# Entry
Amino acid sequence: MQLKEKIKKDIDSLPEEYLPHIERYIRTIKSKKSKRKQIKTLNLDGKFDDMNIRKVAYE
# Structure
């Protein structure tokens, strides 16, 4: 928690004109954390419905 508190303190000490840049940077970091979505197969009325095709492709 010491690092988090230090970062908050540094942000509080920044001039107002830098805050939009910091906000954009934080949004960029958050968007990179998003998880990869599973790709579903087409509805084939069979055994491949709702299957993780990435996993099957590498088996």
